[in-house]
Description:
Helix 1 packs antiparallel against helix 4. The chain has helices at 6-40, 54-70, 82-106, 114-144, 158-167, 170-173, 189-198, 213-226, 265-284, 286-299, 335-342, 361-368, 376-381, 395-399, 419-422, 431-443, 447-462, and strands at 150-155, 176-182, 203-207, 229-233, 243-249, 252-258, 306-312, 318-324, 386-388, 415-417. Helices cover 51% and strands 12% of the residues. The protein is α/β, with parallel strands linked by helices. A four-stranded parallel β-sheet has the order 2-1-3-4.
Amino acid sequence: MSERGSRQHFSVQLLQLIDAVLVWLAFVVAAALRGPLRELIGLDGGGEGLEQMTWSVFLAVPLTPLFLEKFGHYDRLLSKSKGQSLNGLLRGVTLMAFVIGSVAVFGKFEGARRLILATGFILAFLFLSLRMQATAKYLRRRAQDEGFLERVVLAGDREETESFLREVDSEVLSTWMVVEHYDLQEKSVEDLDSLLREEAVQRVVFLAGHAQFERVAQAVEACETQGVEAWIGASFLRTQVARPSFDVVGGKPMLVFRSTPDLSWQLFAKKLVDWVGAFLILCLTFPLLVVAMVGIRLASPGAPVIFRQKRGGLYGKPFRIYKFRTMIPDAEAQLSDIKESHGNELDGPAFKLQSDPRVFPFGAFLRKYSIDELPQMINVLRGQMSLVGPRPLPVHEIAAIENSSHRRRLSMKPGITCLWQISGRSDITSFDEWMKLDLDYIDRWSIWEDARILLKTVPAVLFGKGAR
């Protein structure tokens, strides 16, 4: 069961708002201290200078709470040790300091006051640390006060409730008072109705693994009548990867199991990075694009410069991918003959061949340094691809996939680079290993994972690692 009910989620948002205010206050205090600090170290006092650094405040105030959330600062507020809490806080503030410092250096902001930046982040860490300790102290004190504990009924047989109590997070249990274990099999709905009234119950957790749905529905109605929250544990549904969430469609409650990343600010950031990144790459590599087009014309005259092919996009929806042509004009028609005469170095439906005779010499050069992939930036700008994601396969190769679990790679938008790319690309000859890398990427996806892959792609492309 999730730790974040509506009240818990509201509390996290409140803490993030408080932290944003504290970061703003830290910069205000740092600006006020700039003059005295400069005099203390023997320099002219100078003005405060914060008015020239509005950009840094606009970055630090909203982004610091997001970075803290990334490092788990707002998770398990009661059960974490002080060292764990300080570690997450230090990592979040350090990352924010690095981002703003990088913007100041590379953006060449003349108004950047280094003393204000340094003092501001030290004070931010101090203020946030004090807020963190005050929050933990308040939560511990409230948890010890029985009047603040949430009165909860666990509805299910004894084995189910005991198993639940062993597995649930200690932070959740520290805020509950379990007033009774209610057995759905042995007791009536009328008994539950009386129990809710007499014990001032605030929440009923149904652990209905072996109970009849009709009986659970009647019990939920009893909770609804008295305005008591009803939480239903769907332990009878076993999933290995998919994460459960709740939604409503047409007024009907739906339990949703999703194996792809949830909609969040990170997905929005991914789209923004795709658009900006693809545009900048096209602009910066424009001379290289011209050289590639001229080279293809000279090396393989009488055929198109751009190669177009139908590939499987998001959920397998076909789209037309763009690449610089690196093969002879009738390469597609010769594919069957090449497979028969040279074989396939990759086991599975995809085709890979190190010394493919259809590739002309200049095309081999373009492939080695991934220059042939540059036109795919147009696919990124059109929203058909992402900078990072599983590589799109031709539609006929997707149709030949026999293992259904491999099709889960289609649940994310295909990308120009991926784990397979930075792991050696064509050096990997196992189709199962390739698919495993794609699924691992989906399961642990974050905007930070994309950044890591993009950074590792640069040396992989420059040195032609695994390219064929």
